[in-house]
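DM from R.C. (forwarded with permission)

"hey, sorry to bug you on a friday — could you get me a structure for this? deadline for the figure draft is monday and I only need the backbone to look sensible"
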Amino acid sequence: MTPKSRKLLFFGLACFVILNLLAWGLYVPYLKAYDLIHPPRLSLSRTPSDVGIRKYQTVEFVSSDGLSLRGWYVPSKNGAVVIFVHGHGSNRAELLDEAALLTARGYGALLFDLRNHGESAGDRTTFGLFEQNDVQGAVTFARAQPGVDPTKIALFGHSMGGATVLLAAARTPGIAAVVTESAYSSVEENIAEGVQGLTGLPSFPFAPLVVFFAQHEAGVDMSTARAVDAVRQISPCPVLIIHGAQDGLILVQNAQRLYAAAREPKQLYILPNAGHGGFMQAAPQEYPQRLITFLDQSLRENGK
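My reply, with the result:
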C-alpha cells in the first residue's frame, strides 16, 4: 500500500468514526427525549384498599380539552375534596398514602392518571402545559359529586404534578387551597439537573439537545410551563410549598423561588432529610400535622 493510499484509508476511517460519534451524540439524546414525552406506562401496583380506604369508586371523566381520564374517587364526609396529581412517569397510586391520611379525617379524594399515564388517554406528556387541562376536568368532576361543597376543592401535586396544579389553579376560579411537593419553578430553570436526573446523560453537552428533541416531539414550547408565574396569580388561594432539602432531581431552590413569587397566604415547608419524595417517612409526625393543619384551616376559612 502506497503512502497516499494509507493516508486516504486513515482519513476514511477517521471520517467514519467522527460521523458515528456525531450520530450517537444525536441519536441517544433523541431516544431520551422520546422517553420524556412518551414515558412507559406503569401498571397500578396498589389500590385504595391497600391503604385502608374501604369505600371508593373507579371513575372516568374528561379533561377540559376532551381526553378520557381514569381514576379513583373517595366520597367526601365533610364536603371537601382533595384532588391528587402524580408526577412524571407515575400513576394515580403514587399519592395513596397521602390520600389515606386525609380521607381518614373525612376529606374526599380524587386520584387520577394524567394524560399519557396509567389508564388515561393521550399520547404525549408536556410537563404541565396540557396536563393542567386534566386538572380542570378533575375539578369539574369533583364539584359535581353528591355532598361536595364546590367552594371546598383543594389541589395536591407532586413533582410535575406540583407544577401542574399551580398552572391549573391560576386558570380555575374558586380553588380553596393548593399543596405542592417537589415542584419545579419552571422547566427552563431545571434543564441541566432535570436532564441529568431523568436521562442519566451529562447536562453538557446533552441538555440542549434533549430539550430540543423533546419540544419537537411534544409539539409545544415547554419553556412556557412556568409555575413560578402561575403561583403569583392564585392569591388569595393559600398555598403550601413542600420540598426535600436533599432533592437531587428538582433542587430545593425551586421551592424557594416559588415561595418568593407567591403572594399571601403562603407557607414553605422544607424537610432537611427528605429527597424527591418520601416525606411521610422522613417526618412521620411533623409532615401529617403540617398538611392537615394547613388544609383544615384553609378549607374552613374558605368554605365556612
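R.C.: lifesaver. Residues 245 and 272 are 5 Å apart (CA to CA).
me: no worries. The beta strands are 57-62, 68-74, 81-85, 108-112, 153-158, 177-181, 239-244, 266-271.
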